[in-house]
Every structure is written in structure tokens, then in C-alpha cells.
Amino acid sequence: METNTLIATNNSGSLAHDVGPLRNWLLKSGIGEMQLIHLPSFKRVLVVTESKEAASQLMSKKGELGDIRLRYTLTDTEGALVNPDEEMGRLQVPPHKRTFLISPPTSPPPEFDYSRCEEPPDRVGPTDLGGEIDFEESETDNEGQRTLLSSSAGTITIKPAETLRDRKQEPLPHTALPPKSIFDEE
Fold first, then answer.
1. Domain containing 37: what range?
2. 60 by DSSP, 3-state: which?
3. In a domain, 44, yes or no
4. In a domain? residue 172
5. How many domains does the chain have?
6. CA 53, CA 82: separation in Å to the nearest integer?
7. How far is CA 158 from CA 8, 77, 129, 144, 162, in A?
8. What is the pTM of this model?
9. What CATH number does residue 58 fall under?
10. Is 40 part of a structural domain of the chain?
């Protein structure tokens, strides 16, 4: 299908960096007004002509280009080059208006009263509460366990830890190195 726009590519990808050979060939062809749109990230160049006939004349001469290939695009490209009398049917850039940047308020605001809004620190810290708990009410059984709280939801008991002197078995020997794992490399 013939359109007024051609896509120029080449195998080596040099067209993405140097459009000079294509531009010189287009100038020598004498077809008329054209627009080149260089797309280096796609390694392509679009050639927009005034009409489909101009594009087909370029396609008939594409053998002179060497390693540069030309293909038609799927749709025609519209714009001032194709229809100079028509208004562009696309969105225009909005007119430049003055925009005011609104900064956040200073932190804290100038009318902030530190003495009125801030509370003094607590007199009793959380570490001081341990001395106020009364363990005298807890029950102690014959194994030395103390019951701190007993309710239908559950019971909190404290069991005293064994000391090294009360152990009946010998402690494990200390090793200089940790034991080897099967995942360690040798």
C-alpha cells in the first residue's frame, strides 16, 4: 500500500548515527519538498513527502541507495508539508501562563507557642515501675514456681532457672571452631 511516508533502515545500523548519505540522495532526486525525521533510538529515518506520487517516485529509485532499505509506512502522515492550507487537527501546546509555586509552610509556623503546646516529660519512667509490682501476693509451689496472674484466659508463672551448680549433667565441651556444615566448601 502506497503512503506519503517512507521508513529508511539499514542492516549495519549506521543510519542511526549518520543520515548524510540518505540526505544527499534525497537532494539529488529532485522530487520536491520532503521532511526527514531522524529516530536514532529506533535506528530509522522517516521521509515524509508531499504526496503519494512523490513517495512512489522515491521507491522506484531505491536501487541507487546501496545498503539503505526503504519501506512504506502503514498510514499517511498529515501536517503542514502535506496540506499547507489545512489547520492541524492535533492538540496545540497550551498558552504559557504564569504558574505560582506554593511552598509548604515553615516548620513550625512563627506563631507556634512552645511553652503552651508541649507537655513536660513523665515523672516516672517505665523502668521504675518494676519496683512497684508487689510479688508478695503471688503463690509459690513446692518446685519454686510462682504464679503472678491466674485467670480464665490463662496463667502467668515464673519458673526459676537452673544455675550451673544445680545441674546434674556435665556441660558440653567448648570447641575452638564451630562444626562444619555440609554446605561449607572444602
1. 5-72
2. helix
3. yes
4. no
5. 1
6. 12
7. 84, 85, 18, 9, 13
8. 0.44
9. 3.30.70
10. yes
Residue 84 near residue 35 (C-beta atoms within 8 A): no
pLDDT in tens, the chain (186 residues): 788 889 998 888 788 788 888 888 888 888 888 888 888 888 889 898 888 888 888 888 888 888 888 889 888 887 666 566 666 566 677 777 776 677 776 677 777 777 776 667 776 665 555 554 444 556 677 777 888 878 888 888 888 776 655 666 666 666 677 777 777 776
Is residue 147 in a domain? no
- Reported in sequence order, the residue ranges of the chain that DSSP labels E, i.e. its strands, are 5-10, 34-39, 44-49, 68-72, 139-140, 146-150, 155-158
Rounded-to-integer distance, Cα 151 and Cα 174, Å: 44
Report how far residue 46's alpha carbon sits from residue 77's, in angstroms, rounded to the nearest whole number: 10
In angstroms, the CA 56 to CA 34 distance is: 13
